Amino acid sequence: MGKHLRHPLGQSVTVLVAAYLLIKFGIVYLPPLIGIASAPLPSSVVLQYMITVIVGLLLWVSDNEERWAKFKQPMHRVMVDPEQKVARAVLLLATPLLVAFVTFDRVRPSVAAPVSFRSIHPAPPGQIDFQGRTLRLTGLENPLRSRGSEDEHLEEGKRIYYQNCVACHGDGLAGLGHYSQGFNPVPLSFQDVGTIAQLTESVVFWRIAKGGPGLPNEGGPWNSAMPAWEDFLSEDDIWAVIMFLYEQAGHSPRTWGEEPGEEGGH
Amino acid sequence: MRILGVVKGQLGAAAVLALFLLGAGAGGVSGQEGLGKTTYDKWCSGCHGVDGDGRGVAAEYMLPRPRDFTLALYQIRTTASGELPTDADIRRIIDVGMPTTTMPGWEDLLSEAERDALVDYLKTFSRFFGQGDEPQAIDFGRATKVSDAVLTEGREQYQVMECFKCHGEFGRGDGTSATTLEDAGSFPIRAADLTENWKFNGGGSVEDIFRRLRTGLDGTPMPSYQDVVDAGVITEEQLWSVAHYVRSLAPEDAPGIDEVIRAELIQDAALPTTADDPAWDEVSVSYIPLVGQIIVSPRWFDPRVDGLWVQAMHDGQELAMRIRWSDPSQSPDPDWAEWKARIIDLMAPKEGDPPEAGPTPDRLVVQFPKEVPTGLERPYFLMGDQRNPVYQWRWRSDQPGAVEAEARGLGTATPLPSAEQAVTASATFADGQWTLMLRRPITTESVSDLDFTTGEAIPVAFFAWDGDNGESGTRAAISSWYFVFLEEPTPATVFIAPLAAFAITGGLGLLVVGRARKREQEGIVTEDETPDEA
Question: Residue B160 phi/psi, 5° resolution?
């Protein structure tokens, strides 16, 4: 074993295998260490990294004449040595078989769902028709933030959320309700910094009021299980639940403001 | 023994309740301010209520109802029946949740400190904690090894212990007593479907199942079998065999969700003509989860059918699809009439229109678009809409056959003209399971239906109703769009590329080796002449 590890070919193979394992299975564990979400590398990226590693290894072995000769020697022996006849025959047969198999795997017909493109935040309309009235979304603020008691609005928003939204969006607001696995696309997580934290309250109002059926085509309205809540909730109900969403998830809505902080008056 | 266990459990619950009521005047819940209370009020009170009595604002939309902590009755414990849970027991449920209920796991959402604080805070809702000794976890010993003999023994004890009375002959929650089960709050409760171990509250491993047998699920009709062991009626080893047998009723692994159902091409045999044809055992199975229809009013928060096992085959002429699902009764079954009335009483009134009166059958709908979509656009998954209708195969348990229909929204299905009806159905019901086969020519003369194509993914969705659970109309279990893919014969061109790759690689290899050997023979001379360079 030790002898093989001192040989440049053995070392190269070891580095190659270790690099493959690290790239394929190891890297995915790194981002969580600093608190970032992570996903496995796509195979094209793995291939790119492996080519880089191979080029590096070749540079290293060929950098020194003696190492290069030593590196080539076992391969050369397999090709010419009369005693290595069996190994030679096996290699000559196994390599083309492997290549043929990989090719077959690539060209055979596959059973896969069509790729679906979907815009998660399609552009909102300038105005909507809400329960028979026209609501201008542009510049629209949550009226409850400047009316009545904030605690009462939040209490009401919590009731509405727990009686209507929990089954899909979950009591943790992470999109993990007990029905979430039944739908595709899965319900949005409000904890995610990419959802309500990126939107003005008026856009959230539009999404809640019109639901899946009110999405433009690029949002895939035929797949979304989000109900059109204008059929169930009043205008104030929706504003209250929006207040609760931001409060519970610990996010602030995006503001229209020319003047930042305009909306933080209470 | 089982009946005794139930009575014991209910007496226990009543005693606990009485004691709580006596003590409630003296300050009730002691308000331990701090992390536990803030965490509880923020994340738990919506369901369990600020006072821990299980009456949060969401409670009446949930069945089973959220736990009432004032009763100190905990189902999943490592302690003996009737005893309080350990802190670790409470913490485990906070971490992983209760999969057959609406209780989620909080492991990823709350910090370690918050979850620990919750354990302490939950205990303040009941006067029983902190009195007397700390609850002690039982030493459950190690699982016995499983073998055919152990499973046979387990099956025998399953009968002796009368597990079948609630859980049914093959574990699908269809026993004769299942219609009458109640929890400590007098709410109807289902006997667990033992074929779905990945949803067991408390975990689905053999060890988990043994613990539930040994400790019982306090507050539910599931008794502890410790007294039976203590009385020498059965041995601990036999109780382990029951755990192994129960585990064997469920698949080896929890099903993943396949987006595509593969309709295998049958070339050298005829398509099955019945739902029970053994040929079905040879093709792959996809699992499709179903959830309550809570999109259109009246909504339904208590669907009984939570998943379908779907298979498909075609022979180039016809497509056959087989769907199996757990359902404890062949609706309408008079034995379940009272259950149905209670579920409707609990779950229906707040949702507008009353449910269909009279006996309600079980129903299943398989839905496709009317045409194979060319772009991304397809009809609305919830039975289409005015602009873009869907095409459906509709089956119901009280009528023979199945009907082809068009729908433009939930509750709007209209059958195709009888001359255009081409789908046939074969259904059997046994031991709490429906097995339904639907079959139709791949293409038809009708212009109102879908002409299937091979080699591409065609959208498909499913809907199910358990009539005896009060389901009809919009009160249904639904799925989103999945796909069915009718396989094509593998074209010969698929084999040409690998053959070429084999020939080229093999040829190159031979060439390299040949040249190396030739050079070697010539090179021996060269090397001898210039030994320094070697």
Answer: -60, -45
